[in-house]
Design goal:
0% strand; mainly alpha; 4 helices; 81% helix
Length: 97
Amino acid sequence: MDRLHNRNIDRTLDRLGTYVDPRTRMTLLKFLIAEENKLGDGRSQLKRTERRIRAHEGRIERMLAVIERLRDHGSINIKTRPAVENTERVQPTKKQA
């Protein structure tokens, strides 16, 4: 059963980065919290959480590098602006944690 919850968490974390709509993000966050609560906080689960954090920090850094390149080339447009703003909005929160 833990394997299913962990798979759900990984899949939800991957999906979370693709949604800009606040309602969709909030729904995904609520689901993520519920799945994490089902797993508890045992030693192996804490190690898995640490690995997830490191992996997602790397993804955020790569996304920020892409955003910087888009800015350098003047390529941020009406389609990319919401994703860029969302990523930048999330970044300060991560640094404060």
